[in-house]
Amino acid sequence: MTSKPAILITGASSGIGAVYADRFAKRGHDLVLVARDGARLASLAERLRSETGVAVDVLQADLTAAADIARVEARLRDDSRIGVLVNNAGAAGHGGFLDQSPDQAADLINLNVTALTRLARAVAQRFVESGAGAIVNIGSVVGLAPEFSMATYGATKAFVLFLSQGLHLELGPKGVYVQAVLPSVTRTEIWERSGRDVDALPAVMETAELVDAALVGFDRRETVTIPPLPDSGQWDAFDAARQAMVPNFMQAHAAERYRAAA
Ligand SMILES: NC(=O)c1ccc[n+]([C@@H]2O[C@H](COP(=O)([O-])OP(=O)(O)OC[C@H]3O[C@@H](n4cnc5c(N)ncnc54)[C@H](OP(=O)(O)O)[C@@H]3O)[C@@H](O)[C@H]2O)c1
Predict the structure, then answer these.
(1) What is the DSSP letter of 192?
(2) Is 62 in the pocket of ligand 1 (CB under 6 A)?
(3) Which SUPFAM superfamilies would you find in this protein's record (predicted)?
């Protein structure tokens, strides 16, 4: 057994989550891998055990199924070896808002928002009590760009960013590190799963490059990591503009432009 914390990674059966698993195993962390496809998780676990010698547990779970997510929440609450949660499982959904049925939109929110929040909540209490731990939430640049025509998906990812910033403010002073990672287009199965052709897009990042960059941000304890953004000053300016508004929200009267003409 290592003295390093174990890492629970959701959506570890493919794409970004599988690379996180590889990288944390190579850093010597034991792992708990979560996804629906048990066979893929088992074969990844076997490879990582033999290549790195770490202990890897597989937790087959559909995070949109109540009984399954309850098992993952219990593991996060009760297993004190787990010191990092990588909240990565997610889906993009097909087409635009009108292409998705109400049930499909709700399913997307259930996975990308409800499950992610429940898992963060499940682990946060223990992390705060021990004064340590990290929660990594995988958002998306789409959460900053309604122009990308993925309204429901983008809204779920805007939620992930906001939740991460809120948790950073609330849990950071209690010793818990929270990171939001905002990838842009990355070559994973999410594209074919949502009926899109990734090769039709102008620039595609490989998963290894994305995760290695995200881990640079993790090691620096960044709150928001946007691997593809060349100029971090643009994010800083955006966030500064938002913060400049905050003191102006508390007003007893509507702004002049909304006052009804006498
Ligand atoms: N690829 C991109 O361009 C991109 C860009 C921005 C953000 N992201 C975000 O990156 C994260 C990882 O996605 P990816 O790109 O690596 O796609 P991916 O290869 O499709 O991986 C998604 C993972 O989530 C798991 N998953 C899906 N539904 C699940 C459910 N109901 N319960 C449990 N696990 C479930 C999948 O495994 P099973 O099918 O085995 O359950 C898989 O391991 C997502 O949050 C995504 O929104 C991706």
Answers:
(1) H
(2) yes
(3) NAD(P)-binding Rossmann-fold domains
